Amino acid sequence: MKEQKMHKTISALMFGLALGGAAHAQTVVTDTDGNGSYSIEELTAAYPDMTPELFASVDVNGDGAVDADELAAAREQGTLPN
Question: What are the distances in angstroms from CA 82 to CA 7, 8, 11, 35?
Fold first, then answer.
């Protein structure tokens, strides 16, 4: 009886940890060409729903690339999911 209760407690804890880990997972964006910023192609690989309009809204300075600060701001504002 005691073992069964412990097993249920451990199972509930593991389930909670799994859910918590999923909630903190962050979309990984890869700078495939190593230039220090993200192109629309690189962001589309991480965010399949990326459109030119969405990219332009994330590319705040309009230089045609998204830097780490622009990506972080878009995530914080909810423009892009984490």
Answer: 34, 32, 28, 22
Is 82 a member of any domain?
Answer: no
pLDDT tens over the chain, length 82 residues: 555 443 343 444 344 444 454 556 889 999 999 999 999 999 999 999 999 999 999 999 999 999 999 999 999 999 999 9
Tokens 């998204």 sit on residue? 66
DSSP the chain: -HHHHHHHHHHHHHHHHHHHHHHT-------TT-SSSB-HHHHHHH-TT--HHHHHHH-TT-SSSB-HHHHHHHHHHTSS--
Residue type for position 40: I
| Structural domain includes residue 13 | yes
- Predicted TM-score of the model (pTM): 0.70
Q: Which residue has the tokens 């910023």?
A: 37
